């Protein structure tokens, strides 16, 4: 199954009639090809390039952009759309964020990707601004749900199909594909447990199974590119959860040993799964984009919420798992009283892992107002699970030495040459 057909829209480089024509054609061709190949398409989404605007000089500019995107989404049959915001750009940044916050509260189809790191640099000012944004947004909602649609991304490449860490780059329409692969892995893990396979035997079967699925979806993408004339950037085969009580990354890890997930050995098993994904994509000859890893999205996974309720997870453990997993710290409920300095420091920690390990990562926390540590969320949504609020830890940190944009020594030397 395809979780998402994510379409990158060059909204600032192409006229609206041209985009409407291309999106209409892509919709017709994708639906026809899905029916022809028997591949179910769960959602269509639109992602944009970061706006290069000064919101102080042009107030209301984001609103007009979102209004146009909303119309394009109807044409494409898209359920959601994502606007990235480049937090390296300091001019007009706060005005842009203020307008974005007002929009995301009013429009439940709008996602925001706050960009704080490239593969070579980390915006420390941007991390602080993102922290203020997330905590400020939490105070504008009764249950903290709006931050479900806000991610802070570090070194995430263009065409990443998973929201909210998505953005478009280039002056032409393009698309990428987010797959659903967890069911395949779960079936093989259950089989391995029944048959008492070795870990290597399990991984070999997993690579074979994933390669088959990736090859099938990659062929879909290439054929859709040929029929529509719109560029196919690649697929992301990440093992991602779905809150249906069955499709659980936590259960997958626990079938292979560490129980509950978060116990010692979880990092090792996660590395085995991530390695299988990389090898499968290579074997299938598939174009890849995005994460292609294991996604520990806490509130989207029944098993992860159970582990969190048992206090088997913490921000520190999730940060450690980020060294070998897919998307970083994702969908974690915390008290809205979390200090801004602590949240910005957490963002910097994950950004450091992304830059030093050369892997895309993100942070998506849900600060919950009027709830304390160990009290439960009440999100009341069928696509999310409720869980206890995670303890962000005791803050005893001195302010981190300031640098607007941080580059490690080797990257500073390259910049000076």
From TrEMBL:
Top-level taxon: Bacteria
Gene3D superfamilies: 3.20.70.20
InterPro entries: UPF0210
Name under which the protein is recorded: DUF711 domain-containing protein
Source organism: Pseudomonas mangrovi
């Amino acid at each position: 199954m395809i979780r998402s057909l994510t379409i990158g829209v060059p909204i600032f480089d192409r006229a609206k009639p041209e985009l409407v024509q291309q999106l209409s054609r892509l919709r017709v061709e994708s639906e026809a090809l899905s029916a022809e190949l028997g591949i179910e398409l769960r959602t269509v989404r639109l992602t944009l390039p970061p706006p290069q605007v000064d919101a102080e000089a042009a107030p209301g500019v984001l609103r007009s952009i979102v209004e146009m995107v909303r119309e394009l989404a109807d044409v494409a049959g898209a359920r959601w759309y994502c606007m990235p915001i480049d937090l390296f750009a300091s001019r007009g940044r706060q005005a842009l964020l203020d307008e974005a916050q007002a929009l995301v509260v009013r429009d439940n189809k709008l996602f925001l990707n706050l960009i704080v790191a490239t593969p070579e640099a980390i915006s420390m000012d941007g991390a602080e601004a993102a922290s203020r944004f997330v905590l400020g947004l939490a105070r504008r909602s009764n249950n903290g749900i709006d931050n479900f649609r806000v991610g802070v991304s570090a070194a995430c490449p263009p065409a990443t199909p998973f929201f909210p860490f998505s953005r478009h780059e280039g002056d032409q329409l393009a698309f990428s594909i987010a797959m659903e692969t967890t069911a395949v892995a779960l079936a093989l893990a259950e089989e391995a447990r029944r048959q008492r396979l070795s870990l290597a035997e399990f991984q070999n079967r997993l690579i074979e199974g994933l390669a088959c699925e990736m090859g099938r979806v990659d062929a879909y993408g290439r054929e859709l590119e040929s029929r529509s004339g719109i560029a196919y950037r690649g697929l992301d085969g990440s093992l991602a959860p779905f809150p249906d009580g069955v499709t659980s990354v936590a259960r997958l890890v626990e079938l292979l040993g560490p129980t509950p997930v978060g116990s010692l050995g979880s990092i090792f098993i996660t590395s085995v799964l991530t390695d299988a994904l990389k090898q499968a994509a290579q074997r299938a000859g598939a174009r890849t984009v995005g994460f292609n890893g294991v996604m520990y999205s806490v509130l989207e996974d029944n098993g992860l919420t159970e582990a969190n309720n048992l206090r088997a997870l913490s921000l520190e453990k999730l940060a450690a798992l980020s060294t070998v997993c897919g998307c970083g710290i994702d969908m974690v409920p915390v008290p809205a009283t979390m200090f801004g300095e602590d949240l910005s420091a957490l963002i910097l920690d994950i950004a450091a892992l992304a830059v030093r390990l050369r892997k895309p990562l993100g942070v998506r926390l849900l600060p919950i107002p009027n709830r304390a540590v160990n009290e439960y969320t009440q999100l009341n949504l069928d696509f999310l699970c409720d869980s206890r609020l995670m303890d962000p830890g005791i803050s005893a940190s001195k302010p981190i030495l300031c640098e607007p944009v941080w580059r490690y020594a080797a990257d500073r030397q390259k910049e000076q040459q």
